[in-house]
Design brief:
The chain contains 14 helices and 22 strands. The protein has helices at residues 47-50, 55-63, 73-76, 187-196, 201-220, 255-265, 283-289, 309-317, 342-349, 359-381, 396-408, 434-442, 465-476, 485-492; strands at residues 3-6, 24-26, 39-42, 67-71, 81-83, 93-95, 102-105, 112-120, 123-130, 137-140, 146-147, 149-156, 159-167, 169-172, 175-178, 242-248, 270-275, 298-299, 323-331, 353-358, 385-393, 413-417. With 494 residues, it is α/β, with parallel strands linked by helices. The strands form four sheets. Strands 2-1-3-4-15-14-11 form a seven-stranded mixed β-sheet. It folds into two domains: 3-223, Rossmann fold; 227-476, Rossmann fold (3-Layer(aba) Sandwich), CATH 3.40.50. Helix 6 (255-265) runs parallel beside helix 7 and helix 6 packs across helix 12.
Length: 494
């Protein structure tokens, strides 16, 4: 029994376990061996956006008479077409293989979900998984293609609402697709599939053993993105953990790009996490690291996210990771008055912080001023600020002047230059291509200190942002006239 897993440009063959079923790696070099497989799994990734399938590979898949299982982007590539123009005034159409009579349109979902499996070779019943997609509006356009899965979701296109059901999977003949990651990791789904294939218990054990071997081979392939050939050697020398949080002055500062860049350079086993539920932001780093997505990769902020801070810290404490990089959401103080900001999560975690500010919005000078304001306030709040990273630097003479000024006050200032053609193919939701994204990130000249962290109990102290802001402003702005106490009382209730 041979079950292939596609490992090509933009694919995520270790994003999940796929039921521990894959026994053979299919690449751009051996795709003609597809015809000898019993089944082919096409994993998620950026297959559509990256235009990963050349004509030869497309032909082998369409001619294949075994079972095909596509997950997320792997499902999209099996469809007729995908409209990836979420931020476009007109549709941007990518043609699929047309093996399923399905069309995809923009719909963001990053929930952990319960799904209903309709009667098929995988059995029927309810299972669990997660969604991580930008184009998830599944529309079946003929009667021969049937619904495979229906997912219960709470958040679509960033908006929380009541629980609702959406079509998340379809099948026709031997071709199956679903947007549900971890679909095959539900035991009843996997076991029903193996039963359908006539696999005995001994053969099942053989499959699992072969799967362990190819997983190691897949992990080794991750090293092609990482600069140090000894990256994974002796990574547990002192059993010490190092960690940082990237907080930004605003959205679109490049946190995702920098998270990926740092992941390429660190000498050891790296864990990346996202504050909030939009786990799409850390997928490029997971693509580079060949790490799976788990519930611990998303830290809850209000109702958004997968695990609370306490559960996250407990997992990290008992893990084998050497480095933990936590990516904030939006600006550090966004939604602080609602007590659901990145800085408040950072305070609970207790990790040191780097402030990221982008020079393309308010210029290099404005970016520095914004970062210094964040630096001052975060320090006043009691957060350990390790340094500042100015992203998209376009004038290194100006940067060096600011660096000298920062050093005068004992502030570490780092700069990252603009990436060529950054507006296309390098930003989530703008035709992201994981391969290009990671290659460009790995070239970034950024060497920062990742301090040791002690994983203690979380800081449970509730932080009143308005009070913090008031105390900080008293230190930097002289009050010329007293504020009416009644007005202030009303303000504090906002």
């Amino acid at each position: 029994m041979e079950i292939g897993i596609l490992d090509i440009r933009g694919s995520l063959p270790l994003f999940e376990d796929f039921g521990n079923l894959p026994t053979k790696i299919i690449t751009e070099n051996n795709y003609k061996e597809i015809k000898d497989l019993d089944a082919l799994i096409i994993p998620g990734g950026s297959l559509v956006e990256s235009k990963s399938l050349d004509e030869g590979l497309r032909r082998e898949i369409t001619d294949f008479d075994g079972y095909i299982i596509g997950i997320c982007s792997g499902f999209q590539i099996l469809a007729k077409k995908v409209d990836i123009g979420r931020k476009s005034s007109v549709p941007i159409i990518r043609e699929g293989l047309g093996l399923l009579d399905v069309e995809f349109y923009p719909l963001i979902c990053t929930d952990r979900v319960e799904f209903e499996l309709k009667k098929s070779i995988f059995g029927e019943g309810r299972g669990e998984g997660f969604h991580c997609h930008t184009y998830g509006d599944v529309r079946i356009v003929d009667k021969e293609t049937k619904i495979l899965t229906i997912s219960k979701v709470k958040k679509l296109n960033y908006k929380l609402g009541g629980e609702q059901e959406i079509i998340s999977g379809a099948f026709k003949g031997k071709v199956f697709g679903t947007m549900v990651h971890n679909f095959l990791d539900n035991e009843f789904v996997r076991d029903n599939f193996l039963k359908h294939l006539g696999v005995t218990e001994d053969e099942k054990e053989e499959i699992f053993n072969k799967n362990m071997i190819i997983k190691e081979e897949l992990r080794k392939r991750a090293l092609k993105y990482r600069l140090n050939p000894e990256l994974l050697k002796d990574s547990k020398a002192n059993n010490k953990k190092r960690g940082i949080i990237l907080l930004a002055t605003s959205s679109n500062c490049g946190k995702t790009f920098l998270t990926t860049a740092l992941s390429a350079k660190l000498n050891g086993k790296v864990f990346v996490a996202k504050i909030g539920g939009d786990v799409r932001d850390i997928v490029p780093a997971l693509y580079l690291l060949r790490e799976s997505m788990t519930k611990y990769n998303s830290i809850k902020i209000g109702e958004r996210g997968w695990v609370d801070v306490k559960e996250f810290l407990e997992y990290i404490k008992n893990s084998e990771y050497d480095f933990i990089i936590v990516e904030g959401v939006m600006g550090a103080f966004t939604a602080a008055l609602k007590n659901i900001s990145s800085y408040q999560i950072a305070k609970k975690l207790g990790f040191p912080v780097y402030i990221v500010s982008a020079c393309n919005i308010s210029g290099i000078e404005g970016a520095f001023v914004e970062a210094i304001a964040h630096y001052s306030l975060l320090k006043d709040i009691g957060i350990k600020v390790e340094g500042i990273i100015l992203n998209k630097v376009y004038d290194w003479n100006a940067f060096n002047k600011l660096k000298s000024l920062a050093e005068k006050y004992g502030i570490k200032l780092y700069g990252v230059g603009k990436v060529a053609n950054e507006s296309r193919g390098l930003i989530p939701e703008v035709e992201i291509d994981y391969e290009s994204f990671c290659i460009n990130a790995s070239k970034v000249d950024l060497e920062i200190e990742i301090p040791e962290v002690e994983i203690n109990d979380l800081n449970a102290e509730e932080d009143n942002f308005l009070n913090r802001l008031d105390n900080w402003m008293k230190k930097i702005i002289p009050m010329k006239s007293p504020v009416n106490p009644m007005i202030w009382k009303r303000l504090r209730k906002i």
